[in-house]
User: Which sequence fits this backbone?
């Protein structure tokens, strides 16, 4: 049997109908056995039906009626459906405030009086914010700052098992370790950041210097060039620092004022004029004089990959008004030659290789320049760079394609070009492969 729908119009009709019946009952004025008319209201008699006791005044009767209704349990009435029961008093002395009915909402589309359990809405899950205990901060990655220490330099003791290690309680730079196979070793960790080491080619001696401010070598690789027998300059990121090495001690000297975020990546020194050239990842070249002043010009679109000063044979003298040529290459595939002493910001000449130029090299006499990409080399004459004089294709050489070089081709990130003392042969290195190219017999 289908359920009957129930809305506010039907409820209002039922209430109106009950009021009409109550009015009829009062008009009929049913007489009791004592001859006193019993006046009834919609919810019951309004006057007492017995004359044995005096009738209370109107106020006392009203209070008594309210007290009786508030304390008694509701009884079924005969003026409405069997499922309806009388309401408890809401506590208002001067009437009541009706509560709006919500029977006409569109929450029951099948028009049944009561929704079935299948039609009840699903509970809504409250999501005020992240669950308690959820980590919102970024996790610091410590792998790049790890230093690995060898437990033993002796090959026969490489299987030693570490049993205990302890830091010196007063010196945080000293770490000791003991273990099996007579392992007992102590390390002095001068610095956990970037350390510069100068080694002597004629002895086993070396000198170390720790960079201040914990320079991150992984994010900002360093370039270095000697400016004399005892002085050198390093650059990387925002760092451009001159250092002095003598009597087994490295000490900083001049620190150049660089632009923040300039990202220096290449460095080259011209001992003929004492000029220092630096290149940035933004394509800018800076020429620094001996006083620390600089002159800048935009050279490439993007990262500059190589810088090289043109060599001059002896006894060529460089006067104050002589030009000084500097070659640069970049990821934009261009090679440009600049007069570093000129106020002109336009290059003296330029060539293009079509893809990223990874290395540059002048012949010792400065007559030719070679540029290399990942797969070929082109050689130009400096005074006439309109067309290359020679070329070499890496893919054409069968000896280059060894099984090992094929496996590591995807890992190549270092390339080198250099000429022999006569300018006849060119060495080209890429990854773990090295080729010697004959240019002139």
Assistant:
């Amino acid at each position: 049997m289908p359920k009957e729908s129930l809305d506010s119009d039907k409820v209002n009709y039922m209430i109106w109908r009950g009021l009409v019946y109550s009015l009829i009952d009062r008009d009929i004025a049913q007489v009791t056995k004592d001859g006193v008319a019993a006046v009834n209201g919609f919810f019951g008699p309004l006057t007492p039906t017995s004359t044995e006791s005096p009738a209370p005044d109107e106020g006392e009767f009203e209070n008594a009626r309210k007290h009786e209704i508030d304390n008694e349990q509701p009884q079924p009435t005969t003026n409405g459906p069997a499922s309806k029961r009388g309401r408890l008093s809401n506590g208002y002395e001067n009437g009541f405030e009706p509560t709006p009915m919500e029977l006409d909402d569109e929450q029951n589309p099948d028009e049944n009086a009561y929704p079935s359990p299948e039609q009840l809405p699903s509970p809504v899950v409250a999501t005020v914010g992240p669950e308690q205990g959820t980590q919102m901060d970024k996790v610091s990655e410590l792998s790049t700052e790890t230093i690995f220490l060898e437990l033993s330099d002796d090959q026969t003791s490489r299987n030693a098992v570490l049993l205990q290690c302890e830091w010196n309680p007063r010196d945080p730079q000293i770490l000791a370790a003991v273990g099996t196979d007579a392992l007992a070793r102590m390390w002095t960790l001068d610095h956990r950041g970037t350390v510069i080491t100068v080694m002597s080619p004629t002895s086993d001696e070396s000198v170390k210097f720790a960079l201040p401010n914990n320079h991150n070598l992984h994010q900002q690789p360093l370039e270095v060039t000697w400016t004399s027998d005892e002085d050198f300059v390093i650059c990387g990121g925002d760092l451009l620092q001159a250092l002095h090495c003598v009597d087994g001690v490295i000490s900083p000297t001049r620190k150049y004022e660089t632009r923040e975020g300039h990202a220096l990546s290449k460095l080259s020194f011209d001992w003929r004029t004492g000029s220092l050239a630096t290149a940035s990842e933004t394509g800018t070249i800076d020429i620094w004089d001996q006083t620390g002043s600089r002159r800048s010009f935009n050279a490439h679109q993007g990262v500059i990959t190589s810088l090289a000063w043109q060599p001059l044979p002896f006894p060529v003298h460089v006067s104050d008004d002589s030009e000084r040529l500097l070659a640069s290459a970049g990821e934009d595939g261009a090679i440009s030659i600049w007069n570093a002493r000129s106020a002109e910001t336009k290059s003296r000449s330029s060539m293009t290789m079509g893809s990223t130029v990874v290395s540059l090299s002048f012949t010792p006499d400065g007559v030719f320049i070679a540029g290399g990409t990942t797969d070929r080399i082109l050689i130009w004459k400096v005074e006439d760079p309109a067309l290359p004089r020679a070329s070499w294709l890496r893919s054409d050489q069968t000896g280059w394609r060894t099984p090992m070089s094929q496996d590591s081709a995807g890992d190549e990130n270092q390339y080198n070009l250099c000429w022999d003392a006569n300018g006849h042969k060119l060495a080209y290195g890429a990854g773990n492969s090295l080729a010697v190219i004959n240019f002139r017999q």
About this structure: Confidence is low (pLDDT under 50) at residues 49-53, 76-93. The two ends are 110 Å apart (CA to CA). The longest strand covers residues 239-246. The helical segments are 8-28, 58-71, 403-407.
